[in-house]
């Protein structure tokens, strides 16, 4: 299907761009690159499980991805928000979220069910981080040309994608019970968000790799 091909190829865009400029990236962006690698490995393993090993339910992989990827992208914000908010707040959010993810599969959602609860929670936290970072950018006013800043591209990617993802997670069961035509339209919409997300991150890596300064 076209959707699967788009999802498959789009994730390699920031992987390649990030690899080209990796040595020029600051520490926060290198953690973000770790987030991208996590996504690529998850997609590769998912395809192996589905197409080669013929595993029908790979939801445990989805649960693991949400937990691991959240750590990388939250640490990105930990560095970029340093000096603006107390770093201990983000550290505690990471710890609490990871504990919540464990408790979720023990008491609420099976590893073999769609990770809608942890997915929605992670999306909510990341949207909050993105809003706070935009607040810092506006308050401090250090970036004179917004289009030249890696933070603008990356933070926009996170805000747009995870805001959409939040509603997808909380409405997942409703979407499944609706008409097939509605499901296809919903999936196409979130495919566009997915593609936009990774393209914007790739642009962010490119901007960061061309000596673009970011907050430290």
Tell me what you see in this structure.
The chain is mostly helical and 216 residues long. Helices cover 78% and strands 0% of the residues. The chain contains nine helices and no strands. The protein has helices at 2-10, 12-20, 27-52, 59-80, 87-108, 116-140, 150-170, 172-176, 180-209. α4 (59-80) runs antiparallel to α5 and α4 runs parallel beside α6.
Helix and strand run: HHHHHHHHH
Q: Describe the sheet with the most strands.
A: none
- Helix fraction? over 70%
Strand content: under 5%
Concise synopsis of the structure shown:
With 216 residues, the protein is an all-alpha fold. Helices cover 78% and strands 0% of the residues. Helix 1 runs parallel beside helix 9 and helix 4 runs parallel beside helix 6 (116-140).
Give the helices and strands, then pairings.
Layout: H1 2-10, H2 12-20, H3 27-52, H4 59-80, H5 87-108, H6 116-140, H7 150-170, H8 172-176, H9 180-209
Helix pairs in contact: 1-9, 2-3, 2-9, 3-4, 4-5, 4-6, 5-6, 6-7, 7-9
